Amino acid sequence: MSFLLTSNPCVFLLHSEQSICQARASVMVYDDASKKWVPIKPGQQGFSRINIYHNTANNTFRVVGVKLQDQQVVINYSIVKGLKYNQATPTFHQWRDARQVYGLNFASKEEATTFSTAMMFALNALLDKFK
């Protein structure tokens, strides 16, 4: 983590964010019409580098996925209090919001475990934040 001395608070917030985990996974969404899991970006199969970032200045968290192949951001999702996270299988985990069901198909059980541990840490920290 690095800090930049500046009068602009946005710059400080940017530099007070740190990754609490990293894993490789395919980022999917559930398509209600076809009743199938599909890549979050149409036509883009393959693994992404998935991080959970913690903004230590305001105790917020987000999931960010970047395609390994072309470095394109495929997901940038704010984790909110009360999010329902489900480990459907040892290597496939999912969560939902009002619009969409998201899924991560991990490269290995170890990477899935690393991610789920960080996700549970984030969800518990958000619960504590609002007590």
From TrEMBL:
Pfam families reported for this sequence: WH1
Superkingdom, natural source: Eukaryota
Recorded coiled-coil stretches: none
Protein's cellular compartments: Cytoplasm, Cytoskeleton, Stress fiber
Entries under InterPro entries matching the protein: PH-like_dom_sf, WH1/EVH1_dom
Domain annotation WH1: ranges: 12-126
GO MF term list: profilin binding; SH3 domain binding
Protein name: Ena/VASP-like protein
Lineage, opening ranks: Eukaryota, Metazoa, Chordata, Craniata, Vertebrata
Gene name of this polypeptide: LOC115162646
